[in-house]
Design brief:
By secondary structure, the protein is α/β, with parallel strands linked by helices. The protein is built from twelve helices and 21 strands. Bound molecules: thymidine-5'-diphosphate and zinc ion.
Length: 418
């Protein structure tokens, strides 16, 4: 503890007008699932609270967590990240479409593509010319999965220095991509300088991250945690890009991760601005995204949401029902810890990621088991669905549970039994 990176000023524009609007108390790191042996050791926690910069409008964590807390070296020094991208068939299709979109709109023969935080290669493997793609992924366990599939992947952190070296070696890139990574870059200014060095004349930076208006409207406070350092609106992103002579020229909403935005940026004037982008930006204005009161209202809804969920679970428990958690998602870690949902309510949490099975939920220490355990357990009455963003896929595959009378509980946008 005590290693948080805390600055009182905005991490984007350095203005002192960063206003905290919601606080969840001390929180463990979401992707640091303790093993049995780790249970005896003290767990790292940080103060999870989120603020709004009245100057550049970026919504951001008040305290940032160093990468080392969740990209963890094992005994041999091999860096390890518990999050593996290719765990959902829906997500695989999503990334194939993403690659196709970039390829058809922006690439010319020989154009190079770089992805920052390429994980197991889920996006890069969708490109037709694998010889022209490069992944940057500091976590060796997931980078190795991509490498085995023939996707060149450097196990380093993205930095301006690294990009300079890559460009000197083989030239510039037409596209720099990131999915669910840009929102968490600690040194955002070094990153933007790196993007600028990487891109050729018609170069595009495309990033896809959870979209702030969807977080607000769904009361999806569980998107707020250590590995998500910023929550983007188009306006706040555009303000950031402007500092580097760039601008957003297109934006497309995506349904993944409970509502994301794919944002396309380039040097000013390179591409015409699409009407879709303009429409979305206007909508942000109408919805009061620039006003602190919007965020204070969100904070009130978060507290009400917690009270209602705890009330529901308490009632079910007092009726003698058996409740388990479904998915050890990062989002589940936030909800369970903020609402105090531990072994007092849940017998276990099941999750399909082998890396998480046999471990425990950070903070609450509820054991994580494979879905097989859940399938064999016919005494479960309710499953609290942490991965609500995958509800369609999960409800589709859990017909057995549903047909014997089992029910899912979701906490969004209001806690309820499905
Ligand atoms: P994800 O949606 O990436 O959420 P987060 O960013 O909050 O971690 O993770 C979903 C989690 O749900 C992941 O741990 C795998 C798990 N999962 C299942 O257990 N079963 C499923 O059918 C699906 C789709 C996901
Ligand atoms: Zn700011």
């Amino acid at each position: 503890m005590g290693e948080e990176i805390r600055g009182n000023n905005c991490s984007v524009c350095d203005s002192p007008t960063l206003r905290e609007f919601v606080s969840f108390g001390r929180m463990p790191v979401v992707n640091a699932y303790p093993s049995q042996a780790d249970l005896k050791k003290p767990e790292y926690t940080y103060n999870l609270s989120v603020g709004f910069c009245e100057d550049c409008e970026m919504v951001q964590l008040m305290e940032k967590v160093p990468y080392i807390k969740y990209i963890v070296p094992d005994e041999t020094g091999r860096t390890h990240y518990a999050y593996v991208s290719s765990m959902s068939s829906f997500m695989q299709k999503h990334f194939v479409d993403f690659a196709h979109d970039v390829e058809t709109r922006f690439l010319e023969p020989g154009s190079r593509v770089m992805e920052v935080g390429s994980n197991d290669g889920i996006l890069l493997k969708g490109f037709s010319h694998r010889e022209n793609v490069l992944g940057i992924e500091p976590s060796q366990n997931v980078a190795e999965i991509a490498q085995k599939q023939g996707i060149e992947t450097l196990t380093e952190f993205f930095s301006r220095r690294l990009v300079k070296r890559l460009v000197d070696e083989k030239g510039k890139f037409r596209a720099v991509l990131s999915a669910n990574v840009f929102l968490n870059i600690l040194d955002i200014h070094d990153f933007m300088r790196g993007v600028n060095v990487a891109l050729d004349d018609k170069g595009v930076f495309i990033t896809e991250d959870p979209y702030l208006p969807r977080i607000l409207e769904n009361t999806a406070y569980d998107q707020m945690y250590d590995a998500h350092g910023r929550y983007h609106s188009l306006r706040s992103l555009d303000n950031l890009f402007e500092m580097y002579g760039m601008e957003i020229f297109d934006a497309q909403e995506q349904w993944v991760h409970g509502g994301s935005m794919r944002v396309y940026a380039a040097r000013k004037g390179t591409y015409p601005k699409t009407s879709n982008f303009k429409k979305l930006a206007e909508k942000e204005e109408e919805n009061g995204l620039h006003s602190l009161s919007t965020y204070n209202n969100f904070s009130k809804r978060v507290e009400q949401n917690k009270e209602k969920l705890v009330r529901l679970l308490t009632e079910l428990k007092s009726e003698g029902k058996k409740i388990v958690g479904y998915a050890a998602a990062a989002k589940s870690v936030v909800v369970h810890n903020y609402c105090g949902i531990g072994t007092n309510f849940l017998d276990y949490v099941c999750d399909s990621t082998p890396e998480k099975q046999g471990k425990y939920m950070p903070g609450t220490k509820v054991p994580i088991v494979s879905p097989d355990v859940f399938h064999r357990d016919h005494n479960v009455d309710y499953a609290l669905l942490g991965a609500w963003n995958h509800s369609e896929e999960i409800l589709g595959k859990e017909k057995g549970f549903l047909s014997r009378g089992g029910k899912f509980i979701v906490h969004l946008p209001e806690p309820r039994i499905l």
